[in-house]
Amino acid sequence: MNDTIQAVSIIAAALAVSFGAIGPALAEGRAVAAAMDAIARQPEAAGTLSRTLFVGLAMIETMAIYCLVIALLVLFANPFIK
Amino acid sequence: MTSPLILEPVFQIGPVPITEPVLVTWAIMIGLAALAFLVTRRLSLQPSRAQAALEAVVSAIDGQIADTMQADPAPYRALIGTILIYVLLANWSSLVPGIEPPTAHLETDAALALIVLGATIVYGVRMQGLGGYLKTFAEPSWVMIPLNLVEQITRTFSLIVRLFGNIMSGVFIIGIILSLAGLLVPIPLMALDLLTGAVQAYIFAVLACVFIGAAIGENRPPRNASGKEHDTP
């Protein structure tokens, strides 16, 4: 029984990370593209833009990090494996 | 592979187990305190090199706080500056061979985030009084009270998980790569880790600023409103 749960846990962790990475990856791409566009139009605002961009990117990245943490919980602190 | 969620105590002081992140944190604290003491011992109007460097750091932090909170940075400089410099040094402490960053463990991040939560409440109460601070939970109407309460908890939790996840994943990935491919392969990833560490330290400090600014921020509209009242008659 434990073996089955472990196998399922590993598959679940891989699924969580892979699908959890799709959304943030697309979102970060759009955010960086928009920031590049803005910097190209207004190079003098590059400081403020990149500061805001970094904060925003970290916020978006957090979603992927949540998935990673869930995957690690499933792998290392699984409540169903005795 | 060892779990990143489990900590082994190095030694015990009485009933208190002392783990490696605690030791690293103590080392960083001693280092920072000694540096600050040595540099500020002989302050002069004609600054020495060290004093000029420290002044540049402090004024940079001041500028960031003033930009983010739109307020006088003086009351928040000590807290935000310490958080920024400590998290930065903790993230970069993996540069020293054999040392794992304390922020790669959940407990350190939880302590830091709880400090931020406590500071939010303390500054909020100090700025607008207990009643005024509690009233901000009922903004814009009393229906939002449960949501605002939940938000306090979730944003603290996301502060913990963000720092923990970013730093721990860096350490973890380097460990995996090191077990797959030998000596020089992890170096680009370690360079990326330095960038991540710096950005995460900055983010943590900026978010602490934003949270505290939101807690004290309700103080400003009444001041403007009272200014208008003085203007209208």
CATH superfamily of chain A: F1F0 ATP synthase subunit C
Strand order of the largest sheet of chain B: 1-2
Largest interface: A-B, 14 and 17 residues
Overall form of chain B? globular
* Structural domain count of chain A: 1
Q: What's the shape of chain A?
A: rod-shaped
Given as residue ranges, the uncertain stretches of chain B (5+ residues, pLDDT < 50) are 221-233
Report strand % of chain A: under 5%
The name of the CATH topology of chain A is F1FO ATP Synthase
Given helix and strand content, the structural type of chain A is mainly alpha
Encode the helix/strand succession of chain B as letters.
EEHHHHHHH
Q: Which percent bin holds the helix content of chain B? A: over 70%
Question: Which segments of chain A are poorly predicted (pLDDT under 50) over 5 or more consecutive residues?
Answer: none
Q: What is the name of the CATH architecture of chain A?
A: Up-down Bundle
Using only C-alpha atoms, the radius of gyration of chain B works out to 21 Å
What is the CATH domain class of chain A? Mainly Alpha
GO molecular function (chain B): proton-transporting ATP synthase activity, rotational mechanism
Membrane topology (chain B): Multi-pass membrane protein
InterPro entries (chain B): ATP_syn_F0_a_bact/chloroplast, ATP_synth_F0_asu, F0_ATP_A_sf
Protein name (chain B): ATP synthase subunit a
